[in-house]
Amino acid sequence: MNSFLQNLLTDGPVLTDGAWGTQLQQRGLAFGACPDAWNLTNPDLVSQVAAGYVAAGSKVILSNTFGATRITLDRHGLSPLASDINRAGATISRTAAGEECSVFASMGPSGKMLAMGEVTEAQLLAAFTEQAIAMAEGGANAIVVETMSDPEEAVIAVRAAKSSGLPVVACMTYGSGRSADRTIMGTTPEQAADALLGAGADLVGANCGQGAEQMVGICERLRTASGMPVWMKPNAGLPQIVDGAAVYSTSPQEFAANVMLLVDAGAGFVGGCCGTSPEFITALGAALNDRK
């Protein structure tokens, strides 16, 4: 295992952060607007999100760069600013993190389908590489490739992230298939682990898609397939659609109890995705401390 990641795991499971998008929306981000652009236009508000998770006890926080490849930013006419947005996003989190917290800069999917010919491998590699280099320049300690469903795109993203020289965690999103244990492209945890580690990922994991209790088997299989602790960031349970919006009824304490099942299943880095907030991370931190 990469020595940086191994050092973080010395004292047991590492507490990461929670959702970012909803936190930005609470601070005024309009529906459909580009959250990543706020790194340049509203850096103080982005910093509030990062600082909120640090205050909640996170030892690893992400960056506001999930959709910041030039491919994704092009939807908003912002592709020329890709490097600036990613560099700023990493710097904002790095500043908020202080000395006791690490920054794993976020790299999400492009939103384009390779299989449909909407983008080429070369275009993806160039876009992800540009993003990774800028995030490294901004002070990120590592990169997390997350919420991936297409293993081909994920492999390209990992290769690009590794070119930055930083440690790389790679995560797919599961929830499809008869047992809800495949990505929407039909990829199993074992297939994902093999492909991602083969591309150079230092750790593998899963995020989004399901609640913690639905992800226990996936965590166990990723742990077995990789032979290493797993990165897990589940949603706050399964949502209900109310007036067209996803509403999560799981409490922070219920979430924390369910995530501890993932720790038992081999998770080494744990946090939250959709539906979570600093309150959820505080509750999870308390559960981890009780376990220690």
What does this molecule look like?
- There is one protein chain.
- This protein is of the alpha/beta class and 292 residues long.
- It has one domain: Alpha-Beta Barrel (TIM Barrel).
- Helices cover 44% and strands 16% of the residues.
- It is built from 12 helices and 10 strands.
- An 8-stranded parallel beta sheet has the order 1-10-7-6-5-4-3-2. Strands 8-9 form a two-stranded antiparallel sheet.
- Helix 4 (43-56) runs parallel beside helix 12 (278-291) and helix 9 (189-199) packs across helix 10.
- It starts with a helix and ends with a helix.
- The mean pLDDT is 96.
Q: Would you identify the CATH architecture? A: Alpha-Beta Barrel
Strand residues, percent: 15-25%
- Based on CA atoms alone, the radius of gyration comes out at 17 Å
- Total number of strands: 10
Structural category:
alpha/beta
In brief, what are we looking at here?
The chain is 44% helix and 16% strand. The protein is of the alpha/beta class and 292 residues long. The protein has one domain: TIM Barrel (Alpha-Beta Barrel), CATH 3.20.20.
Note the main attributes of this structure:
single chain, two-stranded antiparallel sheet, 8-stranded parallel beta sheet
Q: How is the secondary structure organized here?
A:
Layout: H1 3-8, E1 14-15, H2 21-26, H3 38-41, H4 43-56, E2 60-61, H5 70-73, H6 82-97, E3 102-107, H7 121-137, E4 142-148, H8 151-162, E5 168-172, H9 189-199, E6 203-211, H10 216-226, E7 230-235, E8 240-242, E9 245-247, H11 252-264, E10 267-270, H12 278-291
Parallel strand pairs: 1-10, 2-3, 3-4, 4-5, 5-6, 6-7, 7-10
Antiparallel strand pairs: 8-9
